[in-house]
Design brief:
This protein is α/β, with parallel strands linked by helices and 304 residues long. Helices cover 41% and strands 25% of the residues. It folds into three domains: 83 residues, Winged helix-like DNA-binding domain superfamily/Winged helix DNA-binding domain (Arc Repressor Mutant, subunit A, Orthogonal Bundle), CATH 1.10.10.10; 97 residues, 3-Layer(aba) Sandwich (D-Maltodextrin-Binding Protein, domain 2); 94 residues, D-Maltodextrin-Binding Protein, domain 2 (3-Layer(aba) Sandwich). A hairpin with a 2-residue loop joins β9 and β10.
Length: 304
């Protein structure tokens, strides 16, 4: 049986988007073209792959089975074509799907991404900023920027920068409250806690090979780090945060690091993560190299 890849791409776009209009938009084709290609594919196979309604389409049982078999094949073929084309042209090309943590992405990756697109006119990017832990393989992402530890062995991780946890407060707060000399002193201070952490009121310190845990009292708790930074700048208390988030405030003197000789227990770093697939596409490799070069050294440390 002959294989028509235009028909397969139309079917896959329809399966992803759920409508002929959205599939046409994805393929940059008129919805009528998508309809004709799907009809030709169903005729060729002799079975209906999609059930149509007035609003959306849904895959039949046969369509679902067909999707599972052909989607990886078409993706591999597209990756191979992009790879060869990239080598031939000497530059990256194609569509890149990226997921990144919201705050870090806005502060540090967005400018890097914009410069990358300006330098690579044949690359398009879909970037989703989300603190949700995305399954790259299941959700078909090409690359992720991740902070912290990486438990997923199916992925290829490239460390591009260190990330240090620290505590800080405004000079006004520190001048008007008792000195903080050892971690236990924090029990008598107002603290600003990130409620997105598993144990936001437990601050863990690592020194001399051991870990000390201090239970603090939140003056304010929030899952929004920007709110906590504003509270710290206003003199409301001591904040538990990351160096990349407050580097410019530390450099300007608006915030001061607390207990710098008592490092917080932290195994994290900044990673570029890609699916563990043979043959990384040129577009992915180019973006990974671009980000790594611009995070070396980490710009939030240079600012200080």
């Amino acid at each position: 049986m002959d294989i028509n890849f235009d028909e397969l791409r139309a079917f896959l776009a329809l399966a992803r988007s759920g409508s002929f209009v959205a599939a046409g938009r994805e393929l940059r084709r008129d919805p009528a073209v998508v309809t004709r290609r799907l009809h030709a594919l169903e005729t060729r196979l002799g079975i209906r792959l999609v059930e149509r309604t007035t609003r959306r389409v849904a895959l039949t049982e046969a369509g679902q089975a067909y999707l599972l078999r052909v989607a990886p094949l078409v993706e591999d073929l597209q990756a191979a074509q992009e790879e060869v084309a990239g080598f031939g042209a000497g530059e990256a090309r194609g569509h890149l799907r990226i997921t990144l943590p919201a705050s870090f992405g806005r502060m540090w990756i967005a400018p890097i991404m914009i410069d990358f697109l300006k330098a690579h006119p044949d690359v398009t990017i879909e970037a989703n900023a989300d603190n949700r832990f995305v399954d790259l393989i299941a959700e078909r992402y090409d690359l992720a920027i991740r902070l912290g530890e990486l438990p997923d062995s199916r992925l290829v991780a490239r460390k591009v920068a260190g990330r240090r946890r620290l505590m800080c407060a405004s000079p006004a707060y520190l001048e008007s409250h008792a000195a903080i000399v050892v971690p236990q002193d924090l029990e008598q201070h107002d603290c600003l806690c990130n409620s997105a952490r598993v144990t936001p009121e437990q601050w863990r310190f690592q020194k001399s090979g051991g870990v000390q845990t201090v239970n603090v009292t939140p003056r304010m708790a929030s899952g929004d780090s920007e709110l906590l930074v504003k509270a710290a700048l206003s003199g409301l208390g001591v904040m538990h945060t990351s160096d990349w988030y407050v580097g410019h405030h530390l450099a300007s003197g608006e915030l001061v690091e607390v207990l710098p000789d008592w490092p917080l227990a932290d195994k994290g770093a900044v990673y570029i993560v890609t699916p563990a697939a043979a043959g990384t596409p040129g577009k992915t490799r180019a973006f990974s190299d671009w980000v790594a070069a611009r995070l070396t050294p980490p710009p939030w440390l240079v600012a200080r």
